[in-house]
Predict the 3D structure of the following.
Amino acid sequence: MKRFFAQRNRRERWLILTFGLFAAAWWITALVGRGRDFYREWQSLRTDAATQALWLQNRDGIMARVDTAGRALDPSKALDSAQSFATLNTMLSGLDAELGSQRTDRTDQFALHSMQVNIRRADLAALLDFYENLAARAPYLGIDQCTLATDRANPGKLSASFRIYSVEVVSAK
């Protein structure tokens, strides 16, 4: 390699040296970027592990609160999927609303039904009435997610997207 380099004229040597330095700089830059990404991932995993350790450390207290909350639920007030759909449909009467399909997650004791509700071009008072009707049915019916946006054509109107859940008691302890 040394002989190859020595046989070149001065201009070719400078070009080889320049390209070699450029390639080395490019490689070092990529190496630093990968190292930075690795460090960020490591920090994220460390934070997740600390969070999980905290949850595990407080497991007994959390389970006690879950058990207490489960006993406080009145199974007669809980809504199955059809009842939650009918209740939401009644609450949404008079609004330009669309109900999405339901999804159900089941455990041994509970079934959690969730549904997407989209309300278009409603005034604030109507949305607040809807919210108050939902709050009256808590904890058996509630909001999991909420997104509000103003209507572009009419700034006095709002469009809202809700993820509504309902709790059904499958078997009482």
About this structure: The beta strands are 96-106, 110-122, 141-150, 158-169. The two ends are 81 Å apart (CA to CA). The domain at 75-169 is CATH 3.30.70.60 (Alpha-Beta Plaits). The mean pLDDT is 90.
